[in-house]
Amino acid sequence: MAMTEKQRILAAARRQPVDKLPVGARVDVWYNYHAGHDTLPEKYKGWSIPDILRDQGAGIQLRHGTIWKIEYRDTEVAAHEDPPYTTTEYRTPKGTVRMKTMFTPQEGPWVPYEVELPFKSVDDYPAIEHLLENTVLVPYLDGYLRKVEMVGEDGLVL
Predict the structure, then answer these.
(1) N or C terminus of the chain with fewer C-beta within 10 Å?
(2) Percent of the chain with pLDDT over 90
(3) Is the peptide bond before 84 cis (omega within 30 degrees of 0)?
(4) Cβ atoms of residues 156 and 60 within 8 Å
């Protein structure tokens, strides 16, 4: 009986026998660059990464999923969008700090570039200390589980 791509990838990772060599192509960087520059091949415009990989006969690896979200206790967070910039202000009982980030999908990054950091002077220490002490990671599996369902037995969500 033939193995699924997911079974092949997992078996190979465990150094177990496989019915054929798994191919788990890493095309996310290629895809993001070309989608951001509108240079995807005509055939694949509007397609998702899993659909492209299925079309190519490759196993799917979806990356950069989030399994948690950040919450802040006793802190007001205000974000202002001015594309491509996002300015986020953290208002704590010990002071306010702000940071500015920039996301440019044309460059294909997964993490926004920090244009302005929250720490600017020694006066910012109390607010940043409060943030560090009151930052909570909360499990959040909704997006991950949607990706697992989308990939099915055709690969893995990392």
Answers:
(1) N
(2) 59
(3) yes
(4) yes
Q: Are strands 68-72 and 135-139 parallel, antiparallel or unpaired?
A: antiparallel
Q: How confident is the model over 55-73, as a mean pLDDT?
A: 88
How buried is residue 127: exposed, middle or buried, by Cβ count under 10 Å (0-12/13-18/19+)? Answer: buried
* 123 plus 103 within the same structural domain: yes
Helices (H), the chain: 5-13, 28-36, 49-56, 125-133, 142-151
Looking at the structure, do residues 29 and 83 belong to the same domain, yes or no?
A: no
Same domain, 79 and 102: yes
Domain containing residue 81: 69-138
- b/e 83-93 (16+ beta carbons within 10 angstroms → b): eeebeeebebe
CA triple 80-83-88, angle to 5 deg = 25
Q: Which of 17-26, 51-60, 95-104 has the lowest mean pLDDT?
A: 17-26
* Predicted pLDDT of residue 105: 67
Tokens of 3: 């193995």
Q: Tokens representing 42?
A: 């005509």
How many domains are there within the chain?
Answer: 2
